Amino acid sequence: MKKTALITGASSGFGHACAKLFALNGFNLVLVARRENRLKALAAELKAGTQVHTISLDLRDSAACLKAFEAIPESFKDIDVLINNAGLALGQEPAYRTQIDDWQTMVDTNISALLRVTRYFLPSMVERNSGHIVNIASIAGSWPYPGGNTYGATKAFVQQFTRGLKADLLGTNIRVSEISPGMAETEFSQVRYKQDDHKAAQVYQGTQPLTAEDIADIVYWTTSVPKHVNINSVEVMPVCQAWGPFAVHREQQ
Ligand code: NDP
Ligand code: 8X3
Description:
Blueprint: E1 4-8, H1 13-24, E2 28-33, H2 36-45, E3 52-56, H3 62-70, E4 81-84, H4 100-128, E5 132-136, H5 149-168, E6 175-181, H6 188-192, H7 197-204, H8 212-224, E7 233-236
Parallel strand pairs: 1-2, 1-4, 2-3, 4-5, 5-6, 6-7
Helix pairs in contact: 1-8, 3-4, 4-5
The structure holds NADPH dihydro-nicotinamide-adenine-dinucleotide phosphate (NDP) and 2-hydroxyethylsulfonic acid.
C-alpha cells in the first residue's frame, strides 16, 4: 500500500520540492498552504498515479485547521510522514525597532501552527505505532545574528520541541527529525523583505546557495534510512556560508 506524506508550506520552496520528490518515490500527498492556485498547479504536475489532497488555509487559523483536518478523506487520513515546513521570517530589524505584528506572525506560524498540526496527527501515529515527523528549523535557531531575534528564537523552539517529542515517543516506532538549513534560495527572502525583490536578490548575489531540491533530498533521506535509525538533527549550509567571528564593539580612541 502507498504511504502518505502531509507537507505544510507545499506551495513554494522546500515544501514544493519535497512534494515532487515524495511523489516520485511513490507517496500519496496531502499538501497544505494558503495559495490554492499553487497547490492545484503542483498537484497537476506530480508523477502520474500520485493521489493528492490539497488543503488551502492559513495555518494560524486553528478553527479552519480543525475543520480541514477533520474533512481529510479516509484514504489520506493515516499520515506516515508529516513534514512541518511552513514558516517564515519577517524583517531583519534590531529588536528595538521591529514591528511587533511581525513577531506575532512568526510565533503564530513557526511555533503555534507547527504545534497544532503535530498535536492533531501524532495520536494516530501513536495508535498505529508508526510514522515520522520531520520539522524544518534553521541554523538561525542555533546561531544568533543581528536582526534574527524572534525568527531565530522560533527555530530554536522547533529544535528543542523535536528533541522533546523524541523523548516522549521513546518505546514507539515513531521517528522524529529536525533539519536546520542555512542559506537557501526560495521565496524566503522575498517574504522576509516584504516583496522587495532587489533586497531579496542581494542575499544570494555572488553565492551558490542551497536549493529547495537540496533540502528535499535531505528530508527524503531522513525518512528512508532503516527503520531502527532516527536522524535526530541535520545542520546544513552551502559551502559558501560559515559562522562569523564574535562581534566586539570598540569605543573610538
Ligand atoms: P518559502 O517562502 O518559499 O515557502 C514557505 C511556505 O510556507 C510557503 O509554501 C507558504 O505558503 C507557507 N506558509 C507560510 N505561512 C503560512 C501560513 N500562515 N499558512 C499556511 N502556509 C504558510 O520559504 P522556504 O521554502 O525557504 O521555507 C520553508 C521553511 O524553511 C520555513 O519554515 C523557513 O523558515 C525554513 N528555512 C528556510 C531557509 C532558507 O534560507 N530559505 C533556511 C532555513 C530554514 P503560502 O504563502 O501559499 O501560504
Ligand atoms: C533561514 C536562514 O540564516 O537567513 O532560516 O536565518 S537565515
